[in-house]
Every structure is written in C-alpha cells, then in structure tokens.
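Hi U.,

Before I forget, here's the chain from the pilot set. I'm dumping it here mostly so it's searchable later in email.
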Amino acid sequence: MTDPDVSAHDHGATLRSPAIYLAVLGVTLGCAALGLWGGLSLGPVAFSILMIAVVVTGIPHGAVDHIVAARLYGLSSSLGDQARFYGFYLAMMAIYGALWLVLPAWCLAAFLLMTMYHFGQADLAYWSLPPVSGRATYLSRGLLLVGLPIAAFPGIVDPIFDAIAGVQVSAWPYVATHGAWVCATLIAQHVIVLAAVRPLAAERPDAWWREFINVAALSALFLTVHPLVAFAVYFGLWHSLGHILELVRFFNRRGEPTSLPGFYRKAALYTVVSFVGLGGLYAATQSFGLQDQMIALLFILISVMTLPHMVIVEHLYQQPETSGSAHHEVTA
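Structure:
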C-alpha cells in the first residue's frame, strides 16, 4: 500500500535535515539543562520516559525488518523465501535468548558491544568511510554513548546490570574511583577519532563540524541526566527516529511512496507483536511492579531483537544511496 500524499520523487527528510536536527538537538540540550539544574530529579519518572521512547520509536524502528529484508535480498512472498527469512530471524533470537539463561554476563558484554557498533553505524554511516576506519569510528562513537552513562552514574546503573546479569558496574576498575577521568577519556578518544577520519570521508560531509556539536550535546546529556532518561532521549530521538526517517527514504527510493504515517502502518503488526511478547514475558516472570526486573527484561528483549536487526541494517548501509544519503542535503 502506498501513500498518495508522498510523490515517488520525494525521498523525505533525515535526522540531519535542519528543522528535525534543531528540534532533536534542542530537546537534548533542554534535558541536559534540566539535569544541571535539578540533578537526578527525573529519576522517579525515568522508567516511564524510557517506555515512551520504546513505544513511540524504539520498537517501531525495527518492526519493518521483514519488509526491508525482502527489498534488499529480493525475497518473494513464496513459502520458501518467507520460511528462510523468518527461520533465520527467529533462530538468531532464540539462540541468543537461550544464551541469556546460561551465560548472562557474557550476553550482556555482547549486547554492549553490539549496541556500540549499531549506534555508531547509525550515527556516522553517512560519512561513507572506508570499511576498516568506518567500523573503528562506529565503535568509538558507541563507546562514548554506552560508556558515559555507566562511568558517570555507576551507582544508578548497578541495580539495572545486577538484575540483567548479576554484574556490579561499581566493581569495574577505575569506574567508581576515577569516574571523571574515565568520562573525559571517553569523550577525548571520540573527538580524536572524528578528527582523524574526517579526511577519509568519501564525499567530505560539508557539515562535519556538526558531529563535534553532537558529541558535546550528547556528552552533556549523558553526564547530567539520569541514565535511563538520557538513554531514552538518545535511543528514541537520535537513533530510532533517525532510522525511521532513513527507512522512509529507503522505501521512497525503491518506488514505494511512503510517509511517516505510512511507515507506522507498515510497522504496526510487529510493533504490537513485540509488546505482546514483552507483556507475556513480564507476566511469566511475575515482574509487573518490580521496576529493576522490568527494565532488565526490556533490555534483554531489545538485545534479542537487535542481533538479527543488525544483520539487516549492516546490509542496508552497504547500499550506496543509504550510506551517502545525507551528502546532498541542505544541512543545519
């Protein structure tokens, strides 16, 4: 089904489009200002804010993987093609989910590593870097995004990681005793990496300086705001909304005129299925009302869905029109 209000030649906006970028940047800086003003005052509503982000953009951004995969791999609606796709997707989820039961600490480590790469790739694929330097840059960006909230607030992260995998962040070397230095190092390493790889960017993004603004804004967010709220802002707006907008462009370039409401119609079925599954998981483990356990199970579910999602996204970003989609935009 297509959207008549979107022409086949209108590829749509991205997160780097001026109005959207300034709005997302404004929300981020506003939250950071609240953090500076009120400390961790958003803590009591942190879980609610996280769930809003997960509901509005978090789960939907991966709920069209089956459609994206069909376009990327040329899959038909035949039983054989569908069985291959869903067999692969569900098998990866099942294997990783089973491993969480027996190797939770290792699965947490794998999830953090996957998240670093996935977040970094989504943020910086548009620089179209060579493969080796590109992947190193993605990991550098992800290390900043994942490492800052852990190093800045180990006491808050502790009960979450403990519920997920029995891990105490405050026991990690230097995190509890030299947190400020760890945070400074995380920021510095990424600034250095960005400066080093910029000359390698395929089309030298005109707004390269914007990434240094992004680093400053996101660092301020993760250093001042409750980790769950900071994660919600980044995951909901920077990552998931950015990916949704890229997918709208992807469908439009493929001759399937799609608006933002049209994307949500495509994503509706598996968004609902995901939340039904999460509710069933909460019911089966009697987790309703136990906030730390609910957060832990939410992150485990996200990790299980992230693994096959990353495989599809990796292939998506190998498409020249996707990795370089921002180069010809008017930027803020």
